[in-house]
Amino acid sequence: MKSYSFLFWGYLVVWLGLATYFVVLMRRVSRVARRLDALESRSKAGDGRSAT
Amino acid sequence: MPRRHDTPLWLLFAVTAAAMPVALYLIFVRAPEELVMGAVQKIFYFHVPIAAITFLSVFVLLAGAVGYLWTRRAVWDHLSVASAEVGLVFCTLVLITGPIWAKPAWGVWWTWEAKLTTTLILWLLLAGILLSRAYAASPEQGARVASVLGVVAALDVPIVYKAVDWWRGQHPIVFGPGKANPLAPGMLSALLFSMLVFFLLYTSLVAARMRLAAVEDRLAALEDSAWRSQ
């Protein structure tokens, strides 16, 4: 195992990098989805006002 | 706090993350050391699965590209952009792990050997797909150009696969039609498990990127209609 330490850490770094990519994607999804929710509720409120 | 829609994605990612240390154990503890190459052969358990996943992403990209050109439905374009981006990440890893093996095996980091050159062309095509979207005059034009480039990228995959046979390259062929399986049992199980982990990771990443493309499209459409109604 000792002689593989360079490769082992290399593997781990790549996997952690790919895992970070997933987490970044999901954070972007939740940020955009929050903006979408806010815009949708604002446009619904606007529709409600114009209907009355 | 994850949204309800995102929970299956986080679950899939959790399963993948739990499988990663098992793959490391199989590769570094269970799989026997190869007699000629020694420690550096352990790259094989990484390089082969990510190369296979790169090919898979290009085939998924092809399905998305053809689907979009045929139907013009956004979901196909989301699949196409997701697989192109994730495919570029995996292709980059192929081009990094290859030279790490090549230096001790061939004595050089890089050579203009057929398989390496055609893989570099694949990387350039995938990068071109993302650039064509980023710099297109409109999202529709970007999607159209990227779809056509996606079909071209898919044509490169069989060329990469057959490059060694067609141009007598130096790149080793471990698997293929007519080749006996040269792997010891411990090696084969480590390779297959590593392939499964990378497949799960690819699925999580493509699903997450597709979801991002879908919510971004919805937001852009809503912002556009709000701007028009003002």
Kindly describe this structure.
Chain A contains one helix and no strands. Chain A has 52 residues and is mainly alpha-helical. Chain A is rod-shaped. Chain A starts with a helix and ends with a helix. Chain B is an all-alpha fold and 230 residues long. In chain B, 78% of the residues lie in helices and 0% in strands. Chain B has six helices and no strands. Chain B is globular and about 70 Å long. The two termini of chain B are 34 Å apart. The interface between A and B is medium-sized, with 26 and 34 residues.
Q: Count of helical segments of chain B?
A: 6
Estimated share of beta-strand residues of chain B: under 5%
What overall form of chain B do the CA principal axes indicate? globular
Structural category of chain B: mainly alpha
Number of helices of chain A: 1
How far apart are the first and last residues' alpha carbons of chain A, in Å? 74 Å
According to DSSP, the number of beta strands of chain A is 0
Strand content of chain A: under 5%
Count of DSSP strands of chain B: 0
Q: What is the radius of gyration of chain A?
A: 23 Å
Unreliable residue runs of chain B: none
Q: What radius of gyration of chain B results from the CA coordinates?
A: 20 Å
* Mean of pLDDT of chain B: 89
Q: List the secondary-structure elements of chain A in sequence, H or E.
A: H
Fraction in helix of chain B: over 70%
- Subunit arrangement of the protein: heterodimer
> Most extensive interface, residues per chain?
A-B, 26 and 34 residues
Structural class of chain A: mainly alpha
**Beginning-to-end CA distance, first to last residue of chain B:** 34 Å
What would you say about this model in short?
The complex is a heterodimer of chains A (52) and B (230). With 52 residues, chain A is an all-alpha fold. Chain A has one helix spanning 5-51.
Features:
heterodimer; A: 52 residues; mainly alpha; 1 helix; 0% strand; rod-shaped; B: 230 residues; 6 helices; 78% helix; globular
